[in-house]
Amino acid sequence: MNIKAFKMDGLGNDFIIIDLRHGVINLTKEQIIKICDRKFLGCDQLVLINKSKDTDAKLDFYNSDGSEAAACGNGTRCAAYFISNEKDKKEVVLTTKSGKLNSKVLGPKLVETVIGKARTNWKEIPTSREVDTKNLGLNIQDKQKNIIKGGTAVNVGNPHIIFFVNDLGNYDLGEIGPRLENDNLFPDRCNITIAKIIDRNKIAVKVWERGAGLTKACGSAACATAFAAKINNLVDDNVDIVFDLGNLSISIDENNFVKMKGPVSNIKKIEINLR
To answer: How confident is the model over 48-64, as pLDDT tens digits?
Structure first.
């Protein structure tokens, strides 16, 4: 089976996009895992574009382990840019499992998306029991085996846990991430971010994505981190989130709606040969 597809990324957070609006393709979980495998083609997430009756398109997101994600910030921005180019329109509305998301193309390969309202109620994260989501009291250990307790939980379409630390390089997120992602406290698993406050308008981060592992960037993690920092009185309403390949600009309004702005890549045509 040969499938025409596209490759895009947002600051290295990369996606394979398959447009199903003109023909249905039913992919198995095993086929999704194969497509995402970097020994085959490789990506952090697979994005499927489907027809929608009341928006420009409907998006479905799949992690590299084959699991489905309700939201993906950078994936939404990439898909919005893809559809903007196709329809020659600057404003695009896309349906996701976390709601209808509005995006604007602000310039060449620059896309802004309103990711939705940040939520912190324990039932909306969700957690398996009632907890203080501002400080979960979870343990993480640095490379010198010093333990800190913390973790702020935020849901921006998917669940995120953010730890604020003094030195990103002093923590092994490859160990911390999978351990906490699968902790019994999180029935839907969770994304894990370690964050360092640079100043009240800038935060550096490293992200472990649920179902994908270590990623070069993550849009929803950027939004969740900015909101977690705000409710902990560490930053102001407008924050740049710093990844290895660039920044995402996050703004939070008085109703806790979060907006994300940042670059996307060129659209590259690819072909998937599944046997």
So the answer is: 999 999 999 999 999 99
